[in-house]
Amino acid sequence: MSIVLAMNLNSKHFLSTSQLSPDEIESIFDRARLFKEEFTKRGRFNHLVTGDGIDQKVLVAAFFEPSTRTRLSFQLAAYRIGIKATTFDNLAISSVSKGESLADTMRNIAAMGPDVLCVRYGASDELDEAISELECPVINAGSGAREHPSQALLDAFTILENRGSLDQQRVVIVGDVLHSRVANSNLTLLMQMGAEVAYCAPPEFAPKDGRWKSVQRFDDLEEALRWATVCMGLRIQKERHTSKGIGLSMAEYRERYRIGTSQLEHLQKDGLLLHPGPVIRGIEISSAVLRDPRNKILDQVSNGVFIRAALLTAMLGLEVNKQ
Ligand code: NCD
Fold first, then answer.
1. Is the pTM here over 0.70, yes or no?
2. Which domains does the chain have, with CATH numbers?
3. Checking CA distances to 172, which of 1, 2, 65, 190 falls within 20 to 30 Å?
4. Of ligand 1's atoms, which has the minimum distance to the CA of residue 148?
5. Given pLDDT bands bounded at 50, 70 and 90, which one contains residue 2?
6. Do 48 and 38 touch, CB atoms closer than 8 A?
């Protein structure tokens, strides 16, 4: 039996969670779930994926910003579905160091004929424009402070897996929401799937984007945790702050927003603690909290491979067969 994945993104690129309908989100989850079940049983799932010339297909992962989880999980996902992957991430030994622009670099990578690209970069209108014109399908692996759609998919998948549904979950996003692409992509996707989203942050980290206008802000972390079924921590995105800082010291932030044991007591017993990583211990979350059974951060990381494998099969038009 073949699971058919409906995926009509209004565009060949996957740049934002706002491109996905609930049915498409469900189909990605169906494939990811199947891959995960098969991997758990047999340690592989490439035998479920078929397509013309599959072993000749190549993913290029172009990373112009640092990454551990996203970059490696795209590569692993490619190998797991039976395609090849190569990474471009060392700008110091590339022609970028000779003065080539990132937009031209992207055009040149695409000219070599990869079958699919995934790209991570900082804010750049020039690069946005170059990507929009590429023939090859592109997956956004994190663009500035705007979007990180595959992360939101794996976050939602982890919530679904652990809480049984997304509908009516109350998800509180804690921390530097203003500079978080993860928060933006999650807001759209989670609301689309019927979850309620709120955030807990000092006014300095309140998002300005219109999408957040009617989203509830909690000032008090304990109150936010009492409200939530899912708490999603965020890293302070120092690299996106201006040189003047944000008008709040790390010590002040930590004092009021760090999730420690006494704060986590306010989250329900079967609630979830998530974080896209990297977690900076002691600033956003204490080490003790990371040992709490409600912490599913490493499940998110494992699920990232299955979600990205599902995405790659969809982008490449590969068939997935349930055996
Ligand atoms: C996030 C990112 O790069 O946007 N990490 C990730 O992809 N897992 C979050 C972060 O860097 O804080």
1. yes
2. 2-148+302-321 (3.40.50.1370), 150-296 (3.40.50.1370)
3. 65
4. 4
5. low
6. yes
